[in-house]
Amino acid sequence: MAKFTFNLPDIGEGIAEAEIVAWHVKVGDMITEDQPLADMMTDKATVEMESPVSGIVTKVAGEAGDVIAIGSMLVEIETASDVGDVSDVSHTTPAVSAEPVLAATVADEVPQAPEPVATLEVVKAEVPKMQESPALQSPATITASPAVRARAKDLGVDLTDVKTAGGHVRHADLDAFLSYGSGQGYRASASAKREDEAIKVIGMRRRIADNMAASKRHIPHFTYVEEIDVTQIEAMRTDLNANRGSKPKLTMLPLLIVAICKSVPQFPMINARFDDESGVVTRYGAVHLGMATQTDAGLMVPVIRDAQDRNIWQLAMEIGRLADAARNGTAKSEELSGSTLTVTSLGPLGGVATTPVINRPEVAIIGPNKIVERPMFVGDSIEARKLMNLSISCDHRVVDGWDAASYVQALKKLIETPVLLFAD
């Protein structure tokens, strides 16, 4: 017998460490070559590590939530003697999973250059055999890796109950189901008393928690809210949708993005990032717009590159594409980093007003709220008008209150007179 040491490989340029999100093996398990060992999360992605050899697991690096350095021991495996005469073999070649890469960054500390992401093929797993419990069998439309199916079986989870955008259930979907989603209802009926649960904050949820805490700790926020009459722009949007043909359906968001991009050149301090360690503010000419998107795994911020160069239909298409990619776990790392300004919207949940948290190291975030119809004085008469509050949170170290208010007033003018959106 020989001892094989699987060291955590370099799974991303410039990455020094990774967090253990989930183990798929434990000490004493007999494993086969290519069997999933653990899910590891970096600042940019979650990668499923696979075993390069068969054998018995004799040691693991830690538990879920622990952070280990690149190159350090992840798993020790006792292998057959034909692996080699050397008693301690170190392995550092990445083992790439057949599951899609799930990018995990929420707010990068500095702009990231686009990084190549391997195209990974999702393999459709076989339907569980008849000897398994009928309650745990999934229809042919549900696909999952053997490791996911085994984990679901151990937990007593029916994969048909797990929500996933593309029909392929991953470990991240299972985690979201158990910890933050409908899985809580799965454990106890609505009429039963719920048991207390202690849930360790790891993976995507810990990344979000760390970024939001850093933002509130380092950035002196202030929020300005203005009411905007969106009656005309909503009427225009209705007309455009009625005659859109094969183009994507327009929401308010593409029109708001056009207004944001047209008004930014007058207020360059809004479209900026602040490196507070070096004391440097970088004002960007292009608008790389972050779009806060809720997914089953948590909040992600895909980025619309060069939003100022796109028309409303191109923006609508890119919004849909990026939102789908974020929700089904196929977004590339460069699509989730490098934003210069962020928009966050709760859609129909909108609320009266929001005080959004800045996506550090950006210096501003814009939050449109729910559109409501209310009576309003128009001249000497009272009319029913569609109104929307617009919130903006800013970093007071970089943006003064006067600048934020002036910028929102410029947005208000464009939105309330929508013909100006299309005027040069």
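The record above closes out task 2.4. Task 2.5 opens with a second protein, given below.
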Amino acid sequence: MKKSLIFSLMTLFIALFLVSAFAAKALKVAMVTDTGGVHDQSFNQSAWEGLQRVKKELGVDVSFKESKQDADYAPNFETLIDGGNSLIWGIGFLMGDVILDSAKTNPKVNFAIIDYAYDKTPKNLVGVVFKAEEASFLVGYIAGKMTKKNKVGFVGGMHIPVIPPFEFGYKAGVKYANKKVEIMDQYAESFVDAAKGKAIANQMYQKGADIVFHAAGGVGDGVIEAAKEQKKWAIGVDKDQNFLAPNNVLTSAMKRVDNAVFNVTKDLKDGKFKGGQTIVYGLKEGGVDIAPSSSKHVPAAILKEVAKIKQMIIDGKLKVPTNEKDYNAFVKGL
């Protein structure tokens, strides 16, 4: 009797183990990149790093499809849906409509998108957005404190809703540090044209700017290259971009896309997928911040001031503007 019971329990244990192993093996997660590609040194690469962490720590099968142009979004999603993925990520605002259509058409597949919030989100879709203005304010403060020419610049990618918070958060931070600083700004209307980014930055440096912040994806590679050649400062975005020009990238406004991708994917694996809503990551949630490499070039005294400002933002004592109207009101109140 005891032997029979032990045998039954062992058989049940083995069966449960095999079912668990099969389930883990069956879970597949993939992502569709924006046109910057998976090695853009920016948010697409950060997202892929998040999925690589998913594979390493959670044992989930991960993959990606690169988009060379906007027309690739829909076919890439279709390929990944047909591939049996349990969760498919869209990395970037520009694929918002495509991923919404995919979610509605494929209710049994889960979807998530970076940098997009829907008015009505399907239960199998989650939006992830970041308070980019908060990290941008901090690097703007650093720029305002460290400029020697009282002239700095901002280079934006495209005029889409996700970029103005970078711009006006940065400008507000600059003015909070030093109201006398002149801020030049220009949009490249691209996220991949590095040559245009370099040309815009060179023009700003020639006009007297000594620090330029970019929120422009691959366009920013050109901004950083210009800073390197002109022996000026550039401020990176999304990832810690100091490695691109160790002596010329002053700091970076980080957006932890990797953490968001990991957390949402882990929720799915744990049966806690937060579909039908938008998740917001700011300073308080550890979703944005200045780069760890900032201490290489930013004086300790200024970093202490930044830490205090960071806490003020977290505590709600300092509200960072995200648009021109609020920015103008913010500056008027200084």
